[in-house]
């Protein structure tokens, strides 16, 4: 049989004549089968097994569970599941990055010290979009922290920013709450360095703090 996406029923003329249910003739049965075939093709139930005969059990199964609807629901479930898994993976990666930075800093110096303070945040800059504020004290920018800057110089900050151009860069800052006066330490910021029409990739000016 050709692999066509429609039903093919044996009509009464192809089977040995015998008793018919409820007094129907073989011709009537053939017409009913033919009509059922047309109705199911019109309604999209075209995924029954392509063998020489089709049982009413198969017909009922397809009618009750149309493949098109099942496929749609399954694809939606797969898309939702993939989105949830992607969101969870992203959150886990961000948390791991922050924890690694904090652990490295704690190993080197239990009292984490900032090495720079934000002097200016330019309007509409990546720094402003990422939530940076004037007065924020920088603890780490990517891999650059107080210890490494002290050993290798402030050029590490620029290198860390340039390496992450177009990607999410993790910063750790301390910030004083202007209402309560309480200092918030180890506050993470996510900024994407990029060309934005202003100065630098971040659009912020830092002043190095004296150790």
Automatic annotation (TrEMBL):
Biological-process GO terms, alphabetical: proteasome regulatory particle assembly
Positions of the PDZ domain: 103-177
Keywords for the protein's UniProt record, in alphabetical order: Chaperone
Keyword Chaperone appears in the UniProt entry: yes
Residue ranges the record marks as coiled coil: none
Pfam families, A to Z: PDZ_6
Cellular component terms per the entry's GO annotation: cytoplasm; nucleus
PANTHER family to which the protein is assigned, alphabetical: 26S PROTEASOME NON-ATPASE REGULATORY SUBUNIT 9
Family label: Belongs to the proteasome subunit p27 family.
The protein, known as: PDZ domain-containing protein
């Amino acid at each position: 049989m050709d692999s066509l996406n429609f039903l093919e029923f044996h009509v009464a003329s192809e089977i040995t004549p015998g008793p018919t249910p409820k007094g129907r003739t073989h011709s009537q049965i053939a017409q009913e089968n033919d009509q059922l075939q047309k109705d199911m093709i019109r309604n999209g139930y075209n995924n029954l097994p392509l063998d020489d005969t089709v049982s009413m059990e198969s017909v009922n199964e397809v009618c009750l569970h149309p493949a098109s609807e099942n496929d749609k629901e399954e694809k939606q479930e797969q898309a939702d599941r993939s989105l949830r898994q992607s969101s969870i993976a992203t959150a886990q990666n961000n948390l791991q990055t922050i924890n690694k930075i904090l652990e490295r800093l704690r190993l080197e110096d239990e009292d984490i010290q900032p090495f720079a303070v934000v002097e200016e945040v330019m309007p509409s800059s990546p720094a402003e979009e990422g939530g940076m504020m004037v007065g924020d004290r920088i603890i780490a920018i990517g891999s650059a922290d107080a210890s490494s800057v002290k050993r290798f110089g402030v050029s590490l900050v620029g290198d860390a920013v340039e390496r992450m151009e177009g990607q999410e860069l993790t910063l750790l800052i301390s910030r004083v709450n202007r209402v309560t006066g309480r200092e918030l330490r180890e506050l993470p910021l996510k900024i994407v360095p990029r060309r934005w029409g202003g100065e630098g990739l971040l659009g912020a000016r830092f002043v190095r703090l004296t150790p």
